Amino acid sequence: MSRSLKSFAGTFAFHPRCKTIKLTHLCFADDLMIFCKGDLSSVRIICDCIQGFSNTSGLHANSGKLAIYLAGVDSFIKEDLRSTSQFTLGTLPFKYLGVPLSSKRFSIADCEKLADMMIKRISSWQAKHLSYAARLQLINSVLMGISSYWCQISILPKRVINIGNFICRSFLWFGVSYSHKPGNISWKEVCTPKKESLWVRWVHGVYTKGGRWEIFNAPATASWIIKKLCAGGSWHTLTTQHKIHWRHLVWNMISIPKTRFLCWLVAGHRLKTKEKLYQLGVVVDDVCPLCGLYPETHNHLFFNCPFSRSCVEAVKLCIGITLKPIARMDFQKRSIPKTKQHVFSSP
Ligand SMILES: [Zn+2]
Q1: CA-CA distance, 24 to 138, in Å (whole number)?
Q2: Which terminus of the chain, N or C, has less C-beta within 10 A?
Q3: Distance 310 CA to ligand 1 centre (A)
Q4: From ligand 1's centre to the CA of 291, what distance in Å?
Q5: How far apart are the CA of 206 and the centre of ligand 1, in A?
Q6: Nearest to 45 by CA among 9, 71, 76
Q7: How far is CA 275 from the centre of its chain?
Q8: Listed residue (106, 226, 82, 206) closest to 163, CA to CA
Q9: Could you tell me the pTM of the whole model?
Q10: 159-177 pLDDT, tens digit each
Q11: 3-class SS at 34?
């Protein structure tokens, strides 16, 4: 295409927005988009190039899928160009690589496809047989990947982002794409970063230099986003998150993802233990089914239950380690920043 069009240099007119970089076309797999000025001679040249390619290679364009998109030209010119090219007159937005292309900002209706794609993916997975950690992996790698792909192309309406979050939340806790039931942990807490982002650390290092954002005034040389954050009072987005003292115990590279997720739920006391179910009236008693002696609480289940302890002792004996028995895990939901606390403590 590029070589053919070069031979028509002087006659072929570039699209006004592609003239600077002399862009004539974009292609991916068997999809091809050609750009030119909306005049008769340029469109004729393109049609001749397509015909020339067909004559040479024997490959023919699918006439049912050919469309011409015009903007900023009169209606009679539109009709001239359409009849010359014999293409269907298309209208924006149209879909390319699964995403609607439009000259305007995406509307909620344009983004329906995004939710459909996410729901379609979820329905193709046997979610009931997946652990929380497996679902989390699929959310991070697939569902968020779809959403991020769209975000790269345009600014999505807030409602669309909320719908995407709703689908992810429903899938994580219930394995479905639509559920209004409350999850074990709030979505806001689920989305809390495990560690401070590099960008936040960079901003603190370059601008505040250890000072407080509340009294920070953006210098004239600061970037627009820093000025906007300071002017709009949104500096709190850059404040350092309170560090949780058990974060390394839960989110480490030693344990397997399934265990990490379970440990995170235990840390927040969010497992549906019999003690909780009894309080809700779901079960008739709160006695631990493993030992049958005490109420099944988080600390009992993992640290105090004779059965759990015997399991731990057996494992320790098997791998040949001798550690002091753990009585309870001193988890706190909200913790204190930078305090050296003992994670494990005796009763
Ligand atoms: Zn027990």
Answers
A1: 38
A2: C
A3: 11
A4: 4
A5: 53
A6: 9
A7: 35
A8: 106
A9: 0.67
A10: 999 999 999 999 999 988 8
A11: strand
